[in-house]
Design goal:
By secondary structure, the protein is α+β, with helices and mostly antiparallel strands. Helix content is about 25%, strand content about 35%.
Length: about 80
């Protein structure tokens, strides 16, 4: 699964593209994913995560080490 946030698990959703004449056709709404590199001071190494902009704010709020511990508890390899 390519377009999935590692922290929040957000992925593309589907909806309708609606024209001016109200004709509906399927489209995809993609999450705002960013590939971000963080320095993990507790382990003295760099980690690269694929995150949404919302989860970058979460990391700034609760801390990188807390988020990495939660991901490892879920079985994610980091």
């Amino acid at each position: 699964m390519a377009r999935v946030c590692q922290v929040t698990g957000r992925k593309p959703i589907t909806g309708n593209k609606v024209s001016h004449s109200n004709i509906k056709s399927k489209r995809r709404f993609l999450p705002n994913l960013q590939k971000k590199r963080f320095y993990l001071a507790e382990e003295d190494k760099w980690v690269t995560l694929k995150l949404t902009a919302d989860s970058i704010r979460t990391i700034n709020k609760v801390g990188l080490y807390t988020v990495v511990k939660q991901l490892r508890a879920q079985g994610e390899h980091i």
